[in-house]
Amino acid sequence: MDLPNKFSSDQFCTLATLTERQICSECGRKRMFFCYDCKVYVGRVGSMAPRVELPLFVDIVKHRHELNSKSTAIHALLISPGQTRIFDKFEEVPNYALECFATENVAVLFPSKNSQSIAQFVRENGPLRRIVVLDSTWNTVGQLRNMANIAKLPMVHLRQYTTDYWRPQNGLSADHLATIEAIYYACVESQEAEREWRRTEERRRMREVEEKEKGEDGGSEEKAEEEQHRLDNLLFWCMRPDPTQLRRYQLSTAAANGVPAGVFVGGANRTRRQWRFLLLLSVLFSVTFTFGFWTFQSDGSIFSPPYHKLEQFVLVEENVSTSAWNTTAQSSTTEGPKELNGNDEGISEKMAKTNRSYENFPVNGTLSNQIQLLSVTYAENATEIAPNVSLFFAVPPRHSVADLPACADHPPGLIGPIPVWMDGPGFETLNKLYPRVRQGGHNWPDACVARHRVAIIIPYRDREAHLRIFLHNLHFLLSKQQMDYTIFVVEQATNQTFNRAKLMNVGFVEASRLYDWQCFVFHDVDLLPEDDRNLYSCPEHPRHMSVAVDKFDYTLPYAQIFGGATAMTRKQFERVNGYSNDYWGWGGEDDDISYRLAYAGFKISRYPAKIARYKMVKHEHDGMNPSNDCRWELLDKTKKRWRQDGLSNLNYTLLSTTFHRMYTNFVVDLLEDDSRKTLANERISRKLLKGC
């Protein structure tokens, strides 16, 4: 698209070849041409976009409610980075009385009864050297104008103009300019006023003859036209819409080709209002239908998530043969585990050689025919000797909770760097080293009530030596941190391609059955923490825990990494729909979950690198964990697939559950063939069953 005839900026032909969004090197999000959050160009755009030297400096003060994606202030910063500043926070705005020299004229662009034209300001005060632009709506711009550092600045206004911006501005008339247009016209008027001021000064000083004055004026007019043409590049991005947004704003072909916004803004706004009304009706209908469906078709709890497949929509009566009690499986989202009697701690899951089945349940409003009957067996599938196996998952006794104080916010006795053991003692030795760890690998402090209930989820297969090393180091650390925690080892059945992300989804669902966990830490078995101040808890935003790993010279490989060891609350994990289920083999799932966090509005939090330090246990490459050739195509479609791929369509068979002394072990079949068929149908994996 070209500029209207009254402007003459550089041609867009080279950039027109870029039709897809590219990944920002700073935040990892996909953007068209530039990232409005990080204020940088993406891909090769920076080498092709024009640069402009402005006749004055521009300071842009943004209101905190102004959306980065809607603001055009970023255009000025990208096109003239050396002369433009953007202040996103009020406290960042400088005190111009102290910052600027006495000879430097500064004004704020703000039309009011006390403002004057730029030409009048220059005639009275000399050339304008810096202009302050307020980027806000008219409802909130007064807050910016009344700031202490701006309130005493003189005010100037522009002449009357009509907007040429391609995007309609929420029902405003055509004489309301976009921020970048206001900056452009301020520069143009400042140039004109400065030339006139200099001519006047020249006449006063030189008193030259009238003919010479005319000759000089003619040359100045040619120079003025050339300077304005150079300034036209300031509107380079303003006149060129993001191709992916043209349909969103209902722009006609004429509008897309540069017809002034005043011609079509009224019709576009009417169309938008009609679509908003229809959208509101559809939302009301959807909410009403959903409310009725979950109220009358499910278990009566409309807030129950549809993917809690194990016990959400069916009650299963079990006969525990060790006593005369009949227990009923309860949803972990409604209440925590119950005691069998006043003296026992915990619940008995099942006797040996007894199976438990679950019928199909509704998923997203329809009956799923993909969920198979799940059967669970315990002691008969145990891999350890009898003393390490139990039918019993221990939980804290209820009668002690009310009698104990809460643990300290910052556990006492944390010293910083701790020893890291690279040898893996046998399970019998581990039992003796950590006698306070209860059955199932569940541990909690005895002298106080833990502030954090944490489930440690370990995706695992065929690395027993690493597991013993991991258990030795983690139980030592978490006991010092006064956590109420359990280590869950989610083991994938053999003869399948390894799927780390899906194993963690399974671990989240299965662990939630046993206890009311607040925080879930997803942890590779070969990472060992080096500092006990690295608390295994969940803050307000998802936490990337393994910031500095010895394999990477204790540096962060890239800003958006979210793998190795991570922590999320239940609500955070559910909000991003868990991990993707479709990353078979090595690579891609960490970047996918990072994208999901960004799409859900989360920021990644991290401890300083001197605290979040880890050692990685060396290991040989797993032949059943090949590099995933599909990962780039899957990552490109994350934004489209993340709400449908994850907890919402999780499908697996639980083969066994064993409560060892040091950990709880889930062995699962991830149904690889079914997932491969789905990928083939989406044309992500074109080789049926084998994948990429």
From TrEMBL:
The keyword Ligase does not apply. InterPro entries: DTW, Galactosyl_T, Galactosyl_T_C, Galactosyl_T_N, Nucleotide-diphossugar_trans. The chain crosses the membrane at residues 277-296. Gene3D superfamilies: Spore Coat Polysaccharide Biosynthesis Protein SpsA, Chain A (3.90.550.10). The keyword Lyase does not apply. GO terms for biological process: tRNA processing. Keywords: Glycoprotein, Glycosyltransferase, Membrane, S-adenosyl-L-methionine, Signal-anchor, Transferase, Transmembrane, Transmembrane helix, tRNA processing. GO terms for molecular function: glycosyltransferase activity; tRNA-uridine aminocarboxypropyltransferase activity. Its EC number is 2.5.1.25. SMART domains: DTW (SM01144). Pathway: Protein modification; protein glycosylation. GO terms for cellular component: membrane. This is tRNA-uridine aminocarboxypropyltransferase. It comes from Heterodera schachtii.
